[in-house]
Specification:
This protein is α/β, with parallel strands linked by helices. Helices cover about 35% and strands about 20% of the residues. Strands 3-2-1-4-5 form a 5-stranded parallel β-sheet, sandwiched between helices. Helix 2 links the parallel strand 2 and strand 3. The model has no long low-confidence stretch (mean pLDDT about 80).
């Protein structure tokens, strides 16, 4: 099972717990794209810390959007970036404001592997459908998704 994660960060550097994220990455084998969707230097520094403190830093990618163009834009950019690296069975995205639930993400991948058809991927109107195997983390937590 080849799985990826996209985490979208906006102007919320106070919610970034570098050590917690690094610990979770070190315990699991995920390819992860950290998207800075705010052009904030503080967020960029925190994301760099995550990448270089993680023992799996070759599987951590950082994408800096110069302007906040919305969640869907950030998720699509992260998905394109990850899909250029390798093929994925599925990708889960989450916003940094729910990163406290990040420890449950391994169980989400297990659920997807067993019953992928019961989950709804990100909506898109594109024929190329970059988002066909990208799922919102909120779907697993049964929270409202604002996508």
């Amino acid at each position: 099972m080849n799985s990826g994660i996209i985490i979208v960060f906006n102007n919320d550097e106070q919610t970034i717990n570098v050590n917690e994220i690094v610990e979770i990455l070190d315990e699991n084998n995920f390819k992860i794209c950290l998207v800075n969707n705010s052009n904030s230097k503080n967020i960029s520094k925190a994301l760099d810390k995550i990448k270089f403190q993680s023992s799996t830093n070759s599987d951590v990618f950082i994408l800096d959007n110069k302007h906040d163009k919305g969640l869907k834009y950030a998720v699509k950019a992260g998905a394109r970036f990850l899909l250029n690296e390798t093929e994925f069975d599925f990708i889960i995205y989450l916003k940094s404001d729910i990163i406290g639930y990040f420890k449950e993400i391994k169980e989400c991948f297990n659920q997807l592997d067993v019953q992928k058809e019961s989950f709804t991927p990100c909506p898109t109107r594109s024929e190329r459908n970059v988002l066909r195997d990208v799922f919102p983390f909120e779907e697993f937590l049964k929270l409202d998704s604002s996508f």
